[in-house]
Amino acid sequence: MRFSQDAWQRNLALYHKTLALPFNQELAQGTLSKAAFAHYVIQDSHYLIAYGRALAVCAAKAFDADDIIQFADAAKIAIVVERTLHDSFMQEFDISKQEFESTPLTLACHHYTSYLVATAWSESYPVVLASLLPCFWIYAEVGKDIVNNSAPNNPYQAWVDTYSGEEFHTAVNNVIQTIDRVAARCDADTLEKMHHAYTKAAELEWLFWDSAYHQRQWPGLDQA
What we know:
The chain is mainly α. It is built from 11 helices and no strands. The longest helix has 28 residues, at about 35-60. It is globular and about 50 Å long.
């Protein structure tokens, strides 16, 4: 069994829990509150900067030239292309540049970004790859599910179209092919570390969306 198949099966229940989150269900129906989506947009913009850094380190650790190009390009796309989408939402939801820059990372965003950047710097290339895969893959699968259930005139259609689009899914499939090729050369101990990294990142994906729905801040600051 390929690494990607094994990882997906091991975490299938977690994926279904992610699909069932109120954030994703209400996003599909277009009933998600603007406050929750604005909270998500700000935190996701912060997240993408850290994700781009982790992808850049992944590129530096890659085993061959093609992989360096793949993840260096992905780092650029994470920050430039997807930030363009977020900028349009910020304008639509009246989120100023000052508000974005002055809004600190939530506990969930801080945990997730710290995990990815720490893993990128401290672990081997295969393990770094595994930690980065859930953001690609789970977003793509959630996007596919949402577009299939999206309500007409959905105010969040631009988000739906981005993560369910052919271009994004092609990029995801390329990453899956890369990690399977790399995993095929790994020993058993490294494979288990890869599975641990994938699962932890998948859990943090769940936490990120759940936190956005409830607009959670750091404990004790929600009432400040």
